Structures
1.
Amino acid sequence: MPYNTRMELNLHIIAEDLAVAGHAVVRRIREDASVRRLRFPALFDGEDTKRSLLYIVEAGLLTPENLTHITEDTSLLVIGETPAALKKLPVNLIQLPSHTQLSKLFSEVTDLFGTYELWDNALKHALIAKRHLRRLGEVSSAIFKRPIYLVDSYLQMVFAVVDTDLYELPEGYRYPVIDNNNPSLAAYALDRFQPDTYTQREPFLLPEVYGYRTLSQNVFIDGHLVATVSVDEVGGSSSRAFTERDFALIAVFAEYLVSGMTYLEEWNSSAPRLVSEQMQLLLDGKLSTSEDTDAALKMMAWLVDDAYYCIVAVPRSNVYPSGLLAATAKHVSAQLSHAVYLIHKGRMVFAVNADHTKLSREETVELLVHALAKLEVHIGVSNIFNSFWMLGAQYHLALAAQELGAQETEAREMVGQGDVSPVPRTRELGDAASRPTPDPPAPRVHFFEEHFLDYLILKCKEATPLEAVIPRGVVQLKRYDEKYGTDYVQTLWVYLRHALRVAPAARELFLHRNTLTHKVAQIKFITRLDFENDPEVRLRTLIALRMMGC
C-alpha cells in the first residue's frame, strides 16, 4: 500500500462499526472490490458523485433531478427511506432510520475515518522505521480485538499478538505454539492449515476444531506464498462470529504485511534469519563464534558437523530485482525443507543439509532447476563437505564452477557459428532433449567436480606464466604445428583423452587407424615424451594441453 495515500475503508467496516455504535443499519453493498475503497466522508450536494467518497444524505434530498448526478458504484449513507428509484441504480447503500441526526452522523463517520487513519499512520510508521513485523500486529490488536498470528512459509511463528488487556480469552484457549527445537510442538499450528488452503487468494475460514474458528489470509509476494496471517474467533468480540468487517480488515492488514516483508530482508522469519546471519558472515569471509553458529543451526535441528553442500544460482543478466530473487528463493526453500538460502551480491545461495533428506544431491538440484525454470540463471554446485564452517570456501568453489560452466555454455552456443568447438562437459538435468526449447532458457547446472581441473588450471595461470609450467615437449609440438600447418596438438589431445585407444580417437578425428598410429609416432619423436608408458607424463601432458585451450 503506497505510503502517500490516506486510509481507504471498506464499506462493510463502516456499516458494522455504526451498528456496534447502536445504529439500526440496513445495507446493500455490491461485491465489486473496485468500488469498495473509500477515502473521505462527504455531504451530498447535488453535484456528480465520485467513487472514492462516502456520501451522507437525507432521503428527502434525493429528488429525481439529484439522482441523475449519482454515478455508478457510488457509496451512499442514506437517512430515512431509500427512494425506489435509487434502489434500482447500481450503487452501494447503507440506510439508517429517519430520526438519525445528520450532523451527529457525519461527526461519527468522520471519527471512524479518523480512527482508521490513525491505524494507517501507525502501520506506515512501523514500516518506514523497518520495525519487526510484530509491531504491525501490536498496533492492529485494538482494531481486530482478537488474537493475531503470522506464520511464515517455513511454518514458523513470525509473531503472535494476544493482548489480554484489550480482550478476554475463553478458558482453555490454545495458542498455536511452534518450537523449532521440537517439531512435534508445531502440530497444533499445522492443524490450522490444509494443503488446499495454500493457494487461497481471498480471506478464508478454517473449520472449528478447538471451539472457535480461525480467519486467515495468505500473503503472496511475486506470486509466491510467503506467510499466512490469522485471527481467532475469540476475544472481546467473541459473542459474535466473524463478519464482513473482519474479512475486509484482514485483507487490508495483509497488504501492509506485504510492504513490511518486501522492506525487511528475510521477512522476519525466525530460525532461517538466524542461520542466514551466520551464512552472511561465512560468505563474507568473516569470523563467528561457535556458540552463535551452534545456536542458529540447532533451531533448524541441524548440527555443525552434518554433511552439507552449497548451491549458487546466478542470473545471466542483472534484470532481476533483489525482491524477485528473494521471493523465488523463499519459495524454493519452502519446498526444500533441508535447505536455507541467502541473497548474496545478487545471487541466490542455498546451504543444503545432506543428512536431513533422502534426496540425493542431483535430485535436489533437479527440483531446484524445476523451481527456477522461469529465470535465466546458471547454477553452480559444490562438493559435499562435513562442516558448516566450510560454507564460505565451498560457496566460492560453487561460484567458480558456475563461472567456468557459463563460459563453456557460451562457447557451446557459438558452435553453430563455427567459432569454437563443442564442449560437452556441462550437465543439464532433466529430459531436455524430449521437450521444446524453453523460453527463457532452462537453468544450466555446473558441478564443481566436473570443473575441478579447469579450476586448478585457472589458479595456476593466475599465479604463474603459462610457459613456465607447460612441458618443453608440448611447447615444441605447438611450434611445429605453427610452422608446418599440422594438427599434432589436437591429435595428441584426442588420443590422450581416449586413454590411448586408437579406434575411438581415430573416429573422432575422422582418420584411418594407421594414419593415427603414424601421427602418434611423429608426435612422440617431436616431443620426446613417453606418455604411453608413464602415467605421470600422460597426466602432465593432458593438463598442459588443457591449459593451452584444448
Note: The longest strand covers residues 224-232.
2.
Amino acid sequence: MKIALVGNPNTGKTTLFNKLTGLNQKVGNYPGITVDKKVGYFKLESGKNIQLIDLPGTYSLNASAKDEEIVTEALSNKNFIEYPEAVIVVADATNLKRNLLLFTQVLDLKLPCVLVLNMSDVAIKRGIDVDVLKMAQKFGVPVVSINARKGLGVDELKSVLEKPLSPPVQQVFKPLEINAEFVEKAKSVLHSDSNYSAWLIANTPNFAFITEHEEQELNKIRKALNINTQRNKVSETVARYGFIDNIIKECVSKKETKYSSFTGKLDAILTHKIWGFFIFIAILLLIFQAIFSWSEWPMELIDNLFGTASTWVLSVFPEGPVANLLADGIIPGIAGVVIFIPQIAILFAFIALLEETGYMSRVVYIMDKIMRQFGLNGKSVVPLLSGMACAIPAVMATRSISNFKERLITILVTPFMTCSARLPVYTILIALVIPNTKYFGFMNLQGMVLLSLYLFGFVMAILSAVVFNKILKSAHVSQLIMEMPPYKVPHWRNVILTIVEKVKSFVFTAGKIIVAISIVLWALASYGPGNRREVAIQQIEVQAADNNWNEETKNLHLMSAKLENSYMGIFGKSIEPVIKPLGYDWKIGIALIASFAAREVFVGTMATIYSVGEEGDPAQGVKAQMAKDVDLETNQPRFTFAVAVSLLIFYALAMQCMSTIAVVYRETKGWKWPLIQFGFMTGLAYLLSFLAYQFLK
C-alpha cells in the first residue's frame, strides 16, 4: 500500500518517518526534478506491506516553490508516479490552527487520510487538551495522538492502517460557491472529476505537470472570466480558517498552567543581536575543535591499517603490475576515502544535533539580519547554511526564493561556503603545516585555522553577493517568513540515521570517483612513452656515481625521474608553468586537475602519486609522504607554509565540482550563469592564491 506522509515543517514528520521505516529507506530524486524524494518501507502485524513516501514539508497546497509544487502534484495528479492510495497528515498539537489548514486541503482532495497529532506531550505541558474522538467525528477521518520521538501512539497509528481507509465525506471548502463556471471549465480542460483539485491547479499558473496546451487553455479561461488567482487563494484561506476556528472551539480546550516558556527565555539569549552571533561562532569553534581532536585516533588507526594492507599485498603477491596496482593504486585510493569517515561523521553529527534541537532555525534568524545588509534575501541563509554540507542540495534549496535576482545571486555565491568535500583537503594541509598546539588546555590551533577557513568562505560569499547585487538590478525585495520551532532534546535515532546516510553518500558517491581516478592515475604514473623512463633512470645512475650521492639522495632522484617521465609527469610538466607562480609543482597540478571531478579527489590523487613514487615504505600514509616530499631545486620541503596557505585559499574559492556546475546549469536553464560562476570563482582563486604565496614565501 502506497501512503504519502505530509505536514508543515517542524511538525516531527521526519521523526515519524524514521520511527516507522528505520534504516529501510531510500533517498533519490523525483523523475526529471532535482528535489529529494524519501521513500521508506515497513510491515504491519497482519503482514501488509506499506510504502511510505515522505513528501517535502509545506504549509499549504497553494504552491509557491518547487518543493511545495511536488506535494500538490503528488496529491492531485493521478498520473504522478508517487500518487498515493492514502495520506498521513502530521500536525503539531501545540499549533493546530495553522497545521489544520493543510489538513483541510488534503481532506477536500477526497483521498483516504489519517490525521496524526504529534508533540502531544508538549501540548499537555502547555495545558492544551484535544478531544481526539470528537475531532475524528467532525472531520470524518481517523485522528491519532502520538509522541513520535518516544514512539507513543505509533502502534495505534499502525492499527488504524490495518483497517480499510475510506475517502472522507466532509468537504470544508466549496469552490463551486466561489465561481462555478471557472471550476467546471477548469475540470473540462484538466479532465478532472475533482472540484477542489481543478480549483487548486487552475489558481496556480505554470504548474510543471500541466501540458503547454492545458496551460494555454487555462490562461484563456482566466482572462475570459477575469479571474484574480491571488484573490481566490485569499478567499479559500479565509473560508478554511473560519471552519478551523469552529473545530478548535469544540474540540480543543486550554487551561492556564504555570508552564513557563523555556523557548522564549532561551531565545532572548540565543537570538540576541550581539550575544547570539558570538554564541553561534563559539558553537562553530566547538564543532571544528571536535573534528580535529575526536577524529585523530580513528584516522591514525585507519591510516595504519591501509598502510599495513599495502605492505602485506607486496609481500604476498608476486612482483608485477597486479601487486603494484593493488598496493599503489587501489588500496591508497580506498584509504583516501575511508580515512575521512570519522571527520565526515562528526561534522554531520553536529549539523543533525543543531537541526534536532531547533537551534538551526535560530541561526537562520540571526544571520538574516546580516544578509540584508548585503542585498540578499533572508531565505538565502538556508541555502548558504546548507552549503556547509554540500553545494548541490544548497543550490536546489534556492527554489524557495521567489525573486529571480535574489535567487540567482544566492546560487552564484553558495559554492563559496565550505562544503564537506573540502574538509579532507583542509585537514590534511592544515595537519602538514599547522602545529597541534593547544591553548587554555582545550583550544586546538588546527581547529581554529579550520574555523577561519569556514569564515573566509562565508565572507567571500557575502562580498561576492555585493558585487553581483551591484551588477544585477531588481526593484522587488522579498521577505523572510519562518517559524521558530520549540527547543527539543535531540532524538538520537534521527541523528544516527543522518550520520549513516551522509557517510554512505560520501563513501559510495565520492568514493567511486576517487577510487576510479586513483586507478587511472596509477596507470598514468606507472608507465611512460617508449623507453623514456629507462633512459632517465640510467642518467640518474650515472649522476649518482659521478657525484657520489648517498643511497637516500639517489633514491629521491630516481623516484622523481620515474614520475616525471611517466604519462602523468609529462602532462603535469606541461601545465606547471601556469601554476608555478602559485607555488605548485606538476604533482600538485595533477591533483588540481583531477579534483575538478570532486574536490575531495585531491587527497586520493596525492596518495596515488606518492604511493607510486615511494620506494621505501608503502606503509606510510599520504600525510607522511607529502611531508617528506622535497623540492629538488631548493632542497626545501615541497609543502611549505606558503604553499599550503596558497592551496587552502585555492580550494576555498575555486569552483572544483562538476556536479555543482551541472546543478547550476539545470537551475538556471542554460550555460551562461554556470560559465560566469566558474570563471569568476576560478579567477578569484588564482589571484588570491598567487598573492598569498608571493607574500608568504
Note: Confidence is low (pLDDT under 50) at residues 29-34, 613-619.
